[in-house]
Amino acid sequence: MRLLVVEDDKNLNRQLVEALQQAGYAVDRAFDGEEGHFLGDTEPYDAIVLDVGLPKKDGVSVLQEWRKAGRLTPVLILTARDRWSDKVQGFDAGADDYVAKPFHMEEVLARLRALLRRASGRATDEIVCGPVTLDAKAGRVVVDGAPVRLTSHEYRLLAYLLHHAGRVISRSEIIEHLYDQDFDRDSNTIEVFVGRLRKKLGVDLIQTVRGLGYLAAPPGDQKKN
């Protein structure tokens, strides 16, 4: 999953980005409302962490413009303001959730997991696909009850495929949602990671659909080329 953090406090921005990266997300960052608005308007993020008190353009205005343009990306607002009227303003602008500063990083991570669950229509942090279970909260993958050790990139790829199990995912969509702006989009990294995942999982879970992309589905439910 690819996230955007829009926060003008450089130290807090860094802490958020590091915590999200450690949790397995690809993260882009912005430090003012204009940059944040541009990125959120042009990149396909799975969720956005947005501060309200931003320079150049405030967070509420940014969010209102995204929603007016039809951007449905889940947005978690961060703000130092704790008045109920500020919270109402944020929700009315289109926020999906709200955290007041100061906050515990674990709460931000939990709320983001909840937003991503709701966006994919799931009720828990566990995704089960045939013999494979992925626990998004623990960052753990189990196959037939046995834990499988994955690198952060392998885990990120598997999580995205499982979030969209049963649907063919193109290579370009994977790149857009799994990697930040600095990723070399002409590389064969995706193919390499898919090969490694298949080997480590040891089950027929990820299928290549020729000319279209990749499909994650339980063995026996997969499509024929």
TrEMBL record:
Annotated ranges, domain Response regulatory: 2-116
Domain OmpR/PhoB-type: 124-218
Molecular function GO terms recorded: phosphorelay response regulator activity; transcription cis-regulatory region binding
Sites of 4-aspartylphosphate modification: D51
Keyword Phosphoprotein: yes
Keywords: DNA-binding, Phosphoprotein, Transcription, Transcription regulation, Two-component regulatory system
Source domain of life: Bacteria
GO cellular component: cytosol; protein-DNA complex
Protein name per UniProt: DNA-binding response regulator
DNA-binding region: 124-218
